[in-house]
Amino acid sequence: MKIAKLVIGIISMVLSIFVLFQSCAAGLVNTIEGSGGVSGTAGVIVAACFIIAGIVGVVTRNSYRAGGGLTAAGFYLVAALFGGTMAGNYSDLYIWAFLSWAFAIFYLVDAFYDEDDWEEVRWWQKSWLIILAMIIFPPVGIALLWFSRQFIVIPKVIMTVIFSLGFIVILANLGGLFTSAPGAASTTADDTATPPSATEEPEKTTEPQKKVYGLGETWTVDGLFDLTFTAASLTDDRNQYSDKAPAQVVILTYDYSNIGVEKSIMELYVSSSDFKVIDGSGVMADSYPASTSGNPKETPIGAKTVGAQVAYGLANASGEITVNVEVRGNDFKSYDAVFKLPVN
Fold it and tell me: What are the residue ranges of helices labelled H in the chain?
């Protein structure tokens, strides 16, 4: 285990520098886009936890006491929490969060594992197998933990609580991803209906068309939130530091209200990351760092944000644009709508 601690510590210290540079870049992008994202800040926290945990792990690798290992594990768990829940547009942060989770498991199991037990240890009680099981599928690792006689009860309880909560967070994040997947669809009673027989001609039904909203029309998701685009205005403002050369720059102005979206990581926050803008020729538009007069804000239940603005650069001059909107409500469930907005 001493060599493993040395290797993990060196990897952590090297990665901390890399993650720090990535975080600065992510923070710069969030600032330029005015999206209000916090992925850059989360990355800096992860980098700090990496270097602190790495140093502690290397310095205490020869100690037979659990204090150093538990300290390193604590910092790795903090890194995993911030990285896994606040990654946003900084997708690599999910990788560093998972790595932090794996390192935390290693240090926790090593800190509490009693290698001096007089009884012969069977293969399924080996520390390496418990660590591997905790990383790949925590419920199996927790079962092995309780079967093992190499831990006393209190450490078993502590690790069970920590790993169970971590597994729940992982499932919650995966649930949000699957819910928002392009091909995801909910199962309805029609999906389980008995198919018609071969001789029976199926009844022809017409699928109801999804409503397309226009300028000034309010999209309301009952009990959760509403959103209204109030303007799609052209601007002559161009950013001298941007390498983009759009044919037009459009500023979208919108209002949104939080009716019942509860705070998870943050309050309801509708920004450019929730919009996909398509110009009149069907080409995807990019966000553009133009000057705007209002920023989106975290909006608690019962409050409303008025006059939020985001800017987009259009590749082709357009008289009308399409905005596909996807907003997350409670339990990371996503809701989508389509707006067609005249540009003026």
Answer: 2-33, 39-59, 67-85, 92-112, 127-136, 138-147, 153-179
End-to-end Cα spacing for the chain: 66
SS3 223: coil
Q: Is the Cβ–Cβ distance between 258 and 289 less than 8 Å?
A: no
Indicate the class that CATH gives domain 212-342.
mainly beta
Contacts for 266 with CB less than 8 Å, ≥ 6 apart? 38, 298
Which residue has 């198919």 as its token pair?
A: 195
Pairwise CA distance, residues 294 & 34, whole Å: 10
> If we measure between CA atoms, which residue out of 330, 231, 241, 328 comes closest to residue 289?
241
Among 48-52, 93-97, 274-278, 297-301, the range scoring the smallest mean pLDDT is 93-97
Q: What is the pTM of this model?
A: 0.45
Domain ranges of the chain: 2-115+123-179, 212-342
Average pLDDT over residues 226-249: 93
